[in-house]
């Protein structure tokens, strides 16, 4: 039970950063989503060691583990508008495959680069 309370509190902290980012975006009239600004503020606080990673770790891990569930509403929306899919189906499928490949490739390259940097081998 304590684990779930910790996860809920940590998710609440993550949500507060999204709200803070939204307030900053609205106040400064920025064309950037508040959640993006909030995640940047959180990253800065973690990097400068203003806030410890332990305050967010379990909540973030749980959100990442359940990330697939957040895409189900998008899939239902696509099914409801099947006429759009039928008109541009092949192109849409091609773009999904291409974007998936690009994301996976770039993630792999960045992870490999970071791994080499940590070992001291930058070749």
Automatic annotation (TrEMBL):
Topological type in the membrane: Multi-pass membrane protein
InterPro entries: LrgA/CidA
Record Pfam families: LrgA
Keyword Transmembrane helix listed: yes
Domain of life: Bacteria
Transmembrane segments: 31-50, 62-79, 85-114
Location(s) in or outside the cell: Cell membrane
Keywords from the UniProt entry: Cell membrane, Membrane, Transmembrane, Transmembrane helix
GO CC terms of this entry: plasma membrane
Major subcellular location class: membrane
PANTHER family: HOLIN-LIKE PROTEIN CIDA, HOLIN-LIKE PROTEIN CIDA-RELATED
Listed name of the protein: CidA/LrgA family holin-like protein
């Amino acid at each position: 039970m304590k684990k779930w309370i910790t996860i809920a509190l940590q998710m609440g902290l993550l949500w507060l950063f999204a709200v803070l980012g939204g307030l900053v975006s609205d106040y400064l009239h920025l064309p950037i989503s508040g959640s993006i600004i909030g995640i940047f503020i959180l990253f800065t606080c973690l990097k400068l060691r203003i806030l410890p990673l332990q305050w967010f770790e379990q909540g973030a891990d749980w959100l990442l583990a359940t990330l697939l569930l957040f895409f189900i509403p998008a899939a239902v929306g696509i099914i409801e508008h099947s006429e759009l899919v039928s008109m541009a189906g092949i192109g849409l499928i091609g773009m999904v495959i291409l974007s998936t490949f690009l994301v996976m490739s770039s993630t792999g390259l960045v992870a490999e680069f970071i791994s080499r940097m940590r070992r001291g081998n930058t070749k």
